[in-house]
Structure formats: structure tokens, C-alpha cells
Amino acid sequence: MTSVTDGTGTRRAVIRRVEPADAARMRALRLEMLADAPLAFLETIAEAAARPHTEYAARVAQVSAGPNTAQFVADPGGGRLVGHAGGIVHPTERRVTVIYAVYITPTWRGLGLLADLVSGVASWSRACGRDELMLEVVVGNDRAYRAYQRLGFVDTGVRVPHPKIPTLRELQMRRPA
């Protein structure tokens, strides 16, 4: 369990792999993610909202087990999930896990959940035989860039086009799992 303090007391969240029973909570978190940071993710809030619950349930079931893709959540218990980070095996580098869709609810930011979510993905990655993590950050998102640097990620110098918005570029960062 992760303990974090927000200045008004201690809040706790468990970092764990998603479970099939999380489908409705994952849908709510996904819609929050897209409303709060629309450039960071690969679909629009309208696309996500239009997707039926059965699709969310199928996706959550898929990432809840197995070695190729996983999603981890920060769960304070009972209500909404407050953080997310996914991992997937790199398509051409089999010893690399790509971290994707990292998000923390605004009121929980700055409390250590990012490190804990990345640690969850890293532990899973190592258990699957992958010893390196990679992620991409939109160029100009200095807050995220600095946060990942603090977690040991290093800018590789690689720049790639944003997959949805051709005028944006993303920078690649890596670190050991």
C-alpha cells in the first residue's frame, strides 16, 4: 500500500493491476483522463464516451492478466480510481516495456503516486523478463518531462511525430526496469 500526504492528512492508495471487476471504474477514469489531458492520449473523449461498457469490460479483462500488456491503477478504495499506468511489450525490442496512458487525478498529483505506478509497471516488466522501460512525452510538456527525469528516465534524443496530431512531436525517455 502506498501512503501519501496531501497536507490535510494521510491518504492511501493501493497500486495494483486492474481486475475485470474494475471495468466501470476504469471507464470513469478514462473519461476523466481525456477531459483533463486531451493531447496525452490517443482518442477523444467523445470516442471514449461512445464506446459501450462491454468494450471497456473486454479491454480490462485483456490487460488484467498475462505477460504482454498490463494496466496498473491507484485505488484509494471504494470510489473512483485516482491513477493509471499501462505497460506493453515493445513491438520490436522484446526486452523493453513501453509505458503508456499515465495519469493521476489532479488532487492526487505530487503525492508520490507517479513513482508508485511506474514501480508497478517496472516490477511486472522484470517478472516478464523485460529489463528496460520506455515512454514518450509530448515535447513541451515540461512538468511530465521533469517528473520522469526524477524517476530515472533519460531523454534518448529520439523524437517522433505525435500519433494523432502531426504538428506535435514526442520525445523518448528510457530507464532500467
TrEMBL record:
Report the source organism.
Micromonospora lutea
Question: Keyword Transferase on this protein?
Answer: yes
Keywords assigned: Acyltransferase, Transferase
Sorted alphabetically, which InterPro entries does this protein's record hold?
Answer: Acyl_CoA_acyltransferase, Bact_Acetyltransf, GNAT_dom
PROSITE patterns, alphabetized: GNAT
Answer whether the UniProt record assigns the keyword Transferase to this protein. Answer: yes
Please report the name of this protein according to its UniProt entry: N-acetyltransferase
The N-acetyltransferase domain extends over: 13-177
Q: Name one Pfam family in it.
A: Acetyltransf_1
